[in-house]
Amino acid sequence: MHTDTSSRLVALALLVFATVVAIYFSREAEARTLRVSDTTESFGAFELVTRGNALAGTDYILQYRGVPFEFVGKAGMFGDKTARYKTFNAVFTIAPLVSGTPAILVNVGDPNNDSVFYLLRDVDGKPVAQYVGAANGVVTANWIDPPAASISNVWDAKAHRGRLAGGRWLLVGKFTAIDMQDFRVYPLAQVRTAEDPSPNEWMPVIGMSPDQLSFVRYGSFQRIVDHRIQNEEVLIVTELTTERWYMVPIRRSIERYNSYIDDVNAVWLNYYFTWRTEPGKPAHLVARNDVKPRPYIGHRPYPPSDPSYPVYRLTSVSTKMRGAFLEYLERVEGGKRRPDSPGGAVSVTIGGATVYLTPQYDWLDLWMDGDKKTSAVYDIGDRFDAVLATGAYDKFFLP
Asked: Could you give the CA distance from residue 317 to residue 371 in angstroms, rounded to a whole number?
């Protein structure tokens, strides 16, 4: 009996061992199949090796004059520890306009909690790792003064590989700037209290002062109004070489826009705001007093060329806009309300097509089923935009 039990245990152990070996070699074969060939890029005396596969992700490794490069840098939640870094969370290769000296910005540490940035350069034939600052959860770098061809209306706040060229001032994370002319690092004003505005990490810089000493970002802060938390949208002006900042309110009834991602940009900024200059003082951003607000216009949150979900949206409107828009749909568009409206929506038949009007928090959506493959929603929207341009519905928009 004892011998029989021992034999079974040996057989079971052999089976487990064989299974583990099979899994190991299967995984190895799969990894070899999915592995991406290494790519090597040269930047002065540095070489960037990108290595990875579809399972494990991507590793970035640097070489300096053909020798693997690593350095000791800050680590820990408070930067009071050190660690040796030889792989990197993110890599940004930089070709600045002014100095012309190539540099590499790397992010190291825990990218979700306590990662930091270092600027790598070749100085007098030696590699130098210059501490830049903490990421504060935003692993990205972008020009404050980008060349026109590279201007974007959205940033990737969790970037891994970036290629930057043509600027001077580099914004790293949310609260650090580098003057790429002389590689000086400037800590920027940070959010200290709940009342301080926070810049939107997905939004690029939307403007720079004419004296090149300040830049503008879109942001917000929260305050309590009538026992409710209210989000206030503002422009945050940050001085580059000091840790000072100030905010400029956005008056939605005057400085109009639908989507901050699509509409709040340099063109919008220059139309509604201007820089006031005084001798010996930095330029100061102020709202234009004599500006004529542009007409309200409906927002198309999805490309009109995509019929999968046609939506025409009226943003920042009062609850009275729902009745006013319905009255327009019936009186001008010849719409007929239907009783079978889905929860919260009103169904209206216009010219054989059924559209739905759905109120949200402070906006109103006109939409229809995407499989209908019709432009009815956008056609109605175009006609209503022409009416909005007359100012007849201005009173239904929030101040």
From this structure: 29
- Return the residue matching tokens 């899994």: 23
Which of 22, 187, 173 shows the shortest CA–CA distance to 108? 173
pLDDT tens digits, one per residue of 322-335: 999 999 999 999 99
Dig out the tokens for 317 from the structure: 């409107």
pLDDT tens digits along 249-308: 999 999 999 999 899 999 999 999 999 999 999 999 999 999 999 999 999 998 777 767
Q: Is 97 exposed, middle or buried (0-12, 13-18, 19+ CB in 10 A)?
A: middle
Q: How confident is the model at residue 31 (pLDDT cuts 50, 70, 90)?
A: very low
| β-bridge mates for residue 108, sequence order | 116
Give Rg (Cα) of the chain: 29
SS (H, E, C) the chain: CHHHHHHHHHHHHHHHHHHHHHHHHHHHHHHHHHEEEEEEEEECCEEEEEEEECCCEEEEEEEECCEECCEEEEECCCCCEEEEECCECEEEEEECCCCCCCEEEEEECCCCCCCEEEEEEEECCEEEEEEEEECCCCECEEECCCCHHHCCCCCCCECCEEEEECCCEEEECCCEEEECCCCEEEECCCCCCCCCCEECCCCCCCEECCCCCEEEEEEEEEEEECCEEEEEEEEEEEECCCCCEEEEECCCCCCCCCCHHHHCCHHHHHHHEEEECCCCCCCEEEECCCCCCCCCCCECCCCCCCCCCCEEEEECECCHHHHHHHHHHHHCCCCEEECCCCCCCEEEEECCEEEEEEECCCEEEEECCHHHCCCHHHHHHHHHHHHHCCCCCHHHECC
Query: How confident is the model at residue 157, as a pLDDT?
Result: 63
Give the global pTM.
0.82
- Separation in Å, CA 74 to CA 109, 110, 127, 173, 187: 8, 11, 17, 16, 16
